[in-house]
Every structure is written in C-alpha cells, then in structure tokens.
Write a structure and sequence with these properties.
Blueprint lengths: L11 E7 L7 H13 L5 E7 L11 H4 L3 E2 L5 E2 L2 H9 L8 E3 H13 L10 H13 L8 E6 L9 H14 L4 E8 L2 E2 L4 E2 L2 H12 L6 E6 L5 H11 L6 E5 L8 H7 L2 H8 L10 H11 L3 E9 L9 H13 L2 E9 L8 H4 L5 E4 L8 H14 L3 E4 L1 H13 L7 E2 L8 E5 L14 E9 L4 H6 L3 E8 L1 E3 L4 H6 L3 E5 L6 E5 L6 E4 L14 H14 L4
Parallel strand pairs: 1-6, 1-7, 2-5, 2-6, 7-10, 10-11, 12-13, 12-14, 14-15, 15-23, 16-17
Antiparallel strand pairs: 3-4, 8-9, 17-20, 18-19, 18-21, 21-22, 22-23
Helix pairs in contact: 1-3, 1-9, 4-5, 5-6, 11-12, 12-18, 14-15
Length: 543
Amino acid sequence: MKEISTPEKHTKYIFITGGVLSSLGKGIASASLGLLLKQRGYSVTIMKLDPYINVDPGTMNPFQHGEVYVTDDGAETDLDLGHYERFLGYSLSKKNNHTTGQVYYEVISKERKGHYLGKTVQVIPHITNEIKRRMTTFDGQYDFVIIEIGGTVGDIESLPFLESQRQMWLERGPLNVLNIHLTYVPYIKSAGELKTKPTQHSVKALMEFGIRPDILLCRTEHKLSKDMRQKIGLFCNVEENNVIEVMDVESTIYEVPIMLSKRELDQIVLKRLGLAPNPLDIDGWSKFVNKIKSPKYDVTVALVGKYTKYQDSYKSIVEAFIHAGSINNSKVRIVMVNSEELTEENAAETLKGIDGILVGPGFGNRGIEGKVAAIKHVRENGIPFFGICLGMQCAVIEFARHVCNIEKANSREFDDNEFCVIDLMEEQKNVKEKGGTMRLGAYPCVISKNTQAHKAYSELEISERHRHRYELNNKFRPVLEEHGMVMSGTSPDGSLVEIMELPNHPWFVGVQFHPELKSRAVTGHPLFISFIKAVVKQKNKDL
C-alpha cells in the first residue's frame, strides 16, 4: 500500500463516525481522545466535517444548530470546535471545520474558471479529492489529526466524506489511518436487556461503504458484559478488546477522558498505529474534575436570553460557568430565563433567589425589553451582572433610559430614531449578504487601569473574539460617562467601546465580545472567574 511521509512529522489520521442516531457525543469522544493523546506527549489537532450544504452555520437558527462557534481567524464554525478547544486548551482555526457547502462551492468555482480542463466534474474524483485535500491540511504538522464526520452513517449527505475516508485508508495504509465508530446499545426496559442489533446494522452500513471500524465506542446506559462485547466483536468484525463501553458520566462531560483512559482507549490507539504509549499526565485534569464534583459553595445564576429552550444555543457560556465554578470551588446552577416572558412588573418575582445574572447574546428585537427589565432589576438591587454582546448593548440602553433619562434610547437594530445609543458599524451599513459579513474573529482591546476589567484580566492589553454588527454609539459616550458609566475597554485607537462597567456596584460588566469562546477547561476565562467570584462573595458575605 502507498505510504506518504513528510520531513516534519509522519501524521496519523483517526476518523470518528457515528451510527444508529445523532447526538451520541462524537464531539466529546473526539475531544477526549485528543486530550489523552496530547497528555501522552503527542501533538494533536481535531477537524470537524459537516455534511450540511450551508457554507457555514452563521445564518442557521440557534434552535436548529445550537451556538455558532467563532475562531480567532473569524470563521463561523460548528459548536464541536468549542469542545475541541476547551479540551485541548488551545485555539483552532477555519481549517478545522469544513462543510459540504464549502467543498462544492470550491469545486464549482474551479469548474467555472476552467480548472478541470473541460472534464466532466463528478463526485469521484473531484469532490472526494477536494475533501481529501482539506483532510490533509495539517499533514506533517501534527502527530495526530482526529477527523470527526458529522451526521450518522447512512445519511445521504455524508457519503462523499465516507468515500474520502475509505480512500485515505487505502492510500495511507493501516499504520497511518484508524477508524473509530461511535454507536448505541439501547436498553429495552420491557425485555430487561441490552440490544446489540442497532450496532450490528450500523457497522454493516459502514462496511458497505468499504470502511471497517478498528474500534467501537458503544454508548450505553448499562455495563456491557464480556459475553455481549464478544458478541458485538464477532458480528461486527472487531476485536473484543476494541469494543469499548461508553456509559453516561455522573456529573460532567469532563469525566469522559478519565473514563476512556480507564478503558485504555488511548493505549489501544497507540498500539494499533505502532506508537509508544508515553506516560499519561492527567493529574491536573483529574483535580479539575474533582472540584466540579465536590465544590464547597453553591450559587444560582440566571442566563437570560431568547434561545433558552435549547441549551446548546449557549453551549460555550454554560461550559465557561463550569470552568469558573471549579476554579472558585463552587457549583454554578444555571437557570434559563426566557427574556420574552420578562417584564418590569414580573422581573423581581421571576428572578427571586437568583445570585447573579448573565444576559446573553442574540440578534433581532424579540425579547429585548425583557432583557432590559432584567438588567434594571439587577442594577437597582446590587445583584452581580454580566452582559455579553447584545447583553452589553441592552445594559447601555437600560442605563441611558433610566439613569440618563433618555426615554427613547434604543439600538438601531430595533428602532430608527435619533436616540440610538447602539448603532450600526459604518462598514456594515451597505452589507447585503448575511453570511460571514459581521465583525468576526479576534480583535485587540486596551483596558483602563483600576477597573473591574483590569482586576479580572490583570493585563492592559487583551484579544477577544467578536461576532456582531452594532457598536456603542460614540455620540452618547459623554452623557453615559457623566452619569457614571465607565468605558473600561476600547479598541486601541479608542473608537470602539469593548467593555463598559458600573463602578458603584458589586460587579456590573458588559462586553461587546464573546469571552465564553476563550474559556478553557482547567484554566477558565478571567471575566467568568471574576464574575463567579463576585457572585460567591455576595451570596456568602455574612459567613
């Protein structure tokens, strides 16, 4: 078989596919394996291939797809990249997420330019060659490239990706490509037993595409007996030791790497690919998990937004709270509050018993007045507040209305009057296409000394990720500052307000960027850590 090497590193490829049903946790499995290999001293990156025809998830409804995860280089990507970054502890890029839409767009663009010299453009080889080109973007740069293929085996959309996976194995050989299949072993309550048939059918479908799994990760609610593992291995043509049960963890997804390590997944992978099982350093991770499971304190934070029916819409925020909670030795209970149901009249009752409030990001005018009502309640009652993107903008609107007495204060996104304290960025005013045209990616921010933001970051210059079209209107900065608002973070030239805060408050900070996208397991994010610290302190001030 043909083997391809590079002068830098001889990259090994691990493909992770899913079967039976969606949402089994391929992203967590990929991130967990990546962490284990990294903690054994190997360099790792993870890639997500999404079968949908959208160019990216930027224009997709959060209820359908969850949050849009933005990278430093401004790519709007799948939320699984958030898992990868949180587990690996470093930033990825647009090269780590590819969609069917991007692949076909590239091939069609080349065809229009005559790149294929008049040949008939077909799925094989043109589409699969483009997919393989993207799969091998990091060839020679890492020891391992883990590639998660979205969707479920059998979906018509994912067939070109599976065919490319098959070709990669053929071209690179079994010492350089490993196939992991994540499947489901359901427990039938009426029969009182686990059933392996869905797994058998899923593997059969995979093998019909020319792919034989080397390892099976079996999601199950009950422990798999040795006999059952033998049965699965026999019918699926997989070694018994490579049939690994993956049971639901008790407390947190961050236990999954520890569980998979106990099942020796990383050792099986290294042995199969002919690499040394270097010592595993996972003590720091274990301590992080233990603090999540056995915290000293307990606080309740309301996440106010309009996508609260689907928690994945705020996935990175939820995870950032878990990180900050562990670091502050506190369990953070999150109460999702639908801003469409909030009013000034019911805010006090709805938010009763809440120790802190985060008003989340979003687009459009639906639920805005509820967010403003929640912010007014916490500002007047000294409850710690954190506003992100639209949450910050709503805090500016609320302050302008009720402190600066600008009754008609609003955002140009929702109203078109002369009192728009939030306005469209100049370069956004003539934008026609929605996808990929916002202010996206990492931008620098300069922080003022002796502010809440400075205390949190302990730095005067930072870089954070953005995803928005509107900014604080500089026309109103003087009046806002005269009434006590502090613009504690700005762009280096001072033209854009990045952070606002109210100094005479236990903790009241709004940011234009998305700090949740840079929160990492074990280390967290400075603003979330500072916010939860303030919440814990406020709740336990009498202790």
